[in-house]
Amino acid sequence: MADFVQILVVGISSGFIFGIIGLSFTAIFNASGIVNFAQGEFTMLGAVLAFAFITTMQLPLFVALLVVIAIMVLVGLSFYFFLAQPLIKRKAPLFSIVIGTLALSLIIGNIAEVATSHNVLRIDHFLGFEPWVLGEIRFTPQNIIIIGTGIVLVLAFWLLLNKTIYGIALRATGFNKEAASLMGIRSSTMIALSFAVSAGISGIAGFVVSPVAGTSAAMGLPLVIKGFVAAVIGGLGNPYAAVVGGIGLGVVSSLFAAYVSSEYADVAAYMILVLVLLVRPHGLFGGKP
Amino acid sequence: MNVKAVHRPKWQRSLALASLAVAAVFLLALPVLVGGYWVYVVQLIGINVVLALGLNIFFGFCGQINLASAAFYAMGAYSYVLLQQKLGIPFLLALPLTLAFCALVTLLLSEVLLRLRHFTLALGSIAIGLTVYLVADRWYELTGGGDGVSMPASSLFGIELGDEFAYYMILVVAVVCYLIAHFLAPSKIGRAMKAIRDDETAALAMGINVHGTMRLAFLLNGMFCGVAGILTAQQNQWISPSVFNVWVNILVVVMVIVGGLGSNPGVVIGAAVVTILPLQFSGLAEYSGLAFGVIVFLVVLFMPQGIIGLREAIPSLLSRINSRLSLGRVSTTPGESGED
Hints:
The structure holds two protein chains of two kinds. In chain A, helix 1 runs antiparallel to helix 8, helix 3 packs antiparallel against helix 4 and helix 5 (141-163) runs antiparallel to helix 8. The termini of chain A are far apart. A two-stranded antiparallel sheet of chain A has the order 1-2. Chain A is an all-alpha fold. Chain A is built from eleven helices and two strands, in the order H-H-H-H-E-E-H-H-H-H-H-H-H. Chain B is built from 15 helices and four strands. In chain B, the strands form two sheets. In chain B, strands 1-4 form a two-stranded antiparallel sheet. In chain B, strand 2 (155-156) and strand 3 form a beta hairpin. In chain B, helix 3 runs antiparallel to helix 11 (210-236). Chain B is globular, with a radius of gyration of 22 Å. Chains A and B meet through helix 3, helix 4, helix 9 and helix 11 of A and helix 6, helix 12 and helix 14 of B.
């Protein structure tokens, strides 16, 4: 029983990461229709920067976190202004923009790979490695931090979207660009905002997962795929469903890894996608898109 | 076909035919002329051409991004090799069996993947690609895992078929695949695919069987990739999961986009360019992701039609310069306008 709960906690914590990536991926998708292949690279950057600031430069945690958030927001904005905006202005078809995000994810991944010289980066657990014991159950503190951060991020995202004027404008742009611009909402600003928020959230997820995820430059691609799987399982277009989908995905694959086969845990994760698509093509919580 | 012939001057057509004939003779004689390295390069190009033509049918004609090329590529190669190695089936029989297997798997996967569209389809297919890669890498008893698996030498009537056989096989298969794609494009089905690409709802309203047509495009894509897998196995006599990693999916997409999405000759050029460039700049191997990223980004930004788009872009640029110049002349003598 204790084992089961521990595996469950690991699953939920990795599931939150997938879910957060799915959520930030949905944020850009809803605002602009762009599927951002570089979402996983944002998370990877967050994790690699965590190594740079925590391990190499020995900054205090919160300072490091703030710097990472600032850098990631800048990355998101420049992603928009250097990639998406020129293409949108040229009235390029959406698929060119998506291929462009794929190209940029290759560029970011390659630069990070050279910068880290293909190493797996070691980052100390934020609150030490000593497990927290509750009865017979032992929790790894880092997993609890990840779950806590995940909950905070989802709440913050919800507050931003529903309780601030920018969030409401952002949703309006996603709902109907023309009508929103008639209400005086500049759609380019809103899409830029969605990129900034999305990169920031993904970066934070990368930051907190860095001690346990085997941080390396190559971690981006598997993460973007898992994040996407989470978003599709939940129902594409609904950011909160993506989080639920992510948690489901994390729990199932960690249970599979523990009780069936750790080698095929990823295969199990992808097969969940296939199963969900067969039974509910629009995702667990999705209506018709 | 006929429309093109009307537009293109006769001399251009015969020039194209002549250069094609020269190229054919050159390629046929290549193993005798130079051998070694360049034979290997042409083999690689041929295999990549087949992969890219396949993706072009689904991506270029039908407008759907498939990032599972490597999955079908691997399935073709592994089933071809394993049928021979584990079951001792001669290669002539293994060929049709492999094709049948690829067709079956592609049809099964299409049931799932074609519920998605566009970019979600792209990401869904990448999951399939990774699954096949993981199985090839982990199922040690069947595939030999990372060590790979070698193929028994092919022989026909007691004669052992070597590297030259693989060369001509690749050449013939690449040409056949090109012809299939070439005649598909202007056919009724090809036009139906393009109608789906341009507007799925409108295509449906015109009475096009959208699901069936897309499934056919996906099937052709999977079969072409499977055939490319057979060719790779025949060429290397040995396969391992690293040949079919995620990178391959991206490379095939790069070939199609750099060459010219939707254009068969463009895709051939794209496959050749993408194959040769890394071989020439092998010193920059560490930066290959960066280089490809920059190339794709620049192509998407400045050459949305790909390399083949230059065919129209250069004449139109020349005529624009021309008209600029002649306009300058015209403006000095008002009243004399519209000389052509």
